[in-house]
């Protein structure tokens, strides 16, 4: 399910079946040109990953709107905000909350986050249409899918 | 003079008629393309007639094979390429069947023979379908897997991007 009207209406009726939340954590940069290039590419990549994942497991996962923050802001300050989001999400209720990110900064803090952090190694910039890149992405998506399915069993 | 006036169009009337006429044409020329653009997505309609080649008929077996193909999808203004998947196989009557992998419960993607050898299985809520794609009673799905319209030409199988529910299953 996605955060669009059509899916939300279905979600409200079928809440008992949709128990897993996905929140992509996506940084963006303004302070540095190089960082802008990097984060924008990762943003595109995350969009691809999360939508593919949503498509494959549509009936049980809920893809929330992207959680964004400035790349050069202190990650410690983000912990409180993301935990607040997670608490609200769990009230719905959602049993599992997965946070997807390419940003390494979160890893050090993973113990203080109230959701399941899934850090993915990002491929370097490249053509998202090329077959090799697609193959890499496909296998990574299958890995995440397995991880999510494990939490269900 | 008065007789003449009855039969003839006066200068004033003539100008009125011609200006209205010409003005009308000019207005139409301006507005028609605008209306055209405004309803453009409606005029194009669904491109359901576009069949896409997926595989040769002699490659089809009795075991479902997963094939993927790309179609252009238009959501109003937004056009994008979308990858679609299908399970293609011969059913027990020897007819070709091209099933959509979208679970009829809540739309997850089902897989063939992951849980049981000859069943389709949905990982989300353990939905099961038999080898013909019919939902197994007691599992969440309420109807059989949907089917793609297909056509065979010169030994090649083409699928339409549209799927439909299967009757009488």
From TrEMBL, chain A:
It comes from the Bacteria. Pfam families: DUF2487. This is DUF2487 family protein. It comes from Allobacillus salarius. The lineage of its organism: Bacteria, Bacillati, Bacillota, Bacilli, Bacillales.
From TrEMBL, chain B:
The chain crosses the membrane at residues 14-39. This is Menaquinol:cytochrome c reductase iron-sulfur subunit. GO terms for cellular component: membrane. Pfam families: Rieske. Component of the menaquinol:cytochrome c reductase complex. The Rieske protein is a high potential 2Fe-2S protein. InterPro entries: Rieske_2Fe-2S (IPR017941), Rieske_2Fe-2S_sf (IPR036922), Rieske_Fe-S_prot (IPR014349), Rieske_Fe-S_prot_C (IPR005805), TAT_signal (IPR006311). Belongs to the Rieske iron-sulfur protein family. PANTHER family: CYTOCHROME B-C1 COMPLEX SUBUNIT RIESKE, MITOCHONDRIAL (PTHR10134). The main subunits of the menaquinol:cytochrome c complex are a Rieske-type iron-sulfur protein (QcrA), a cytochrome b (QcrB) and a cytochrome c (QcrC). The lineage of its organism: Bacteria, Bacillati, Bacillota, Bacilli, Bacillales. GO terms for molecular function: 2 iron, 2 sulfur cluster binding; metal ion binding; monooxygenase activity; oxidoreductase activity, acting on paired donors, with incorporation or reduction of molecular oxygen. Its cofactor is [2Fe-2S] cluster. It comes from Allobacillus salarius. CDD domains: Rieske.
């Amino acid at each position: 399910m996605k955060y669009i009207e059509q899916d939300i209406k279905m979600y409200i009726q079928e809440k008992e079946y949709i128990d897993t939340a996905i929140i992509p954590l996506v940084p963006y940069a303004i302070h540095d040109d190089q960082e802008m290039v990097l984060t924008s590419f990762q943003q595109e990549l995350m969009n691809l990953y999360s939508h593919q994942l949503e498509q494959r497991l549509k009936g049980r996962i809920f893809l929330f709107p992207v959680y964004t923050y400035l790349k050069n802001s202190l990650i410690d300050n983000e912990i409180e905000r993301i935990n607040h989001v997670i608490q609200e999400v769990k009230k719905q209720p959602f049993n599992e909350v997965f946070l997807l990110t390419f940003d390494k900064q979160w890893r050090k803090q993973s113990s203080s986050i109230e959701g399941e952090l899934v850090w993915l190694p990002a491929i370097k910039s490249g053509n998202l249409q090329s077959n090799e890149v697609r193959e890499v992405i496909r296998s990574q998506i299958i890995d995440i899918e397995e991880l999510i399915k494990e939490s269900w069993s | 003079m008065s007789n003449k006036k009855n039969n003839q169009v006066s200068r004033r009337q003539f100008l009125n008629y011609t200006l209205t006429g010409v003005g009308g044409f000019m207005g139409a020329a301006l507005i028609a393309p605008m209306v055209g653009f405004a309803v453009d997505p409606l005029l194009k309609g669904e491109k359901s007639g576009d069949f896409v080649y997926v595989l040769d008929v002699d490659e089809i077996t009795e075991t479902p094979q997963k094939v993927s193909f790309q179609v252009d999808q238009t959501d109003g203004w937004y056009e994008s390429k979308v990858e679609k998947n299908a399970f293609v196989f011969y059913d027990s009557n020897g007819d070709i069947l091209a099933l959509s992998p979208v679970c009829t419960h809540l739309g997850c993607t089902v897989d063939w023979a992951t849980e049981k050898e000859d069943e389709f299985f949905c990982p989300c809520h353990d939905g099961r379908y038999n080898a013909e794609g019919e939902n197994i009673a007691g599992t969440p799905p309420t109807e059989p897997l949907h089917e793609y319209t297909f056509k065979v030409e010169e030994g090649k199988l083409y699928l339409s991007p549209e799927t439909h529910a299967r009757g009488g299953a």
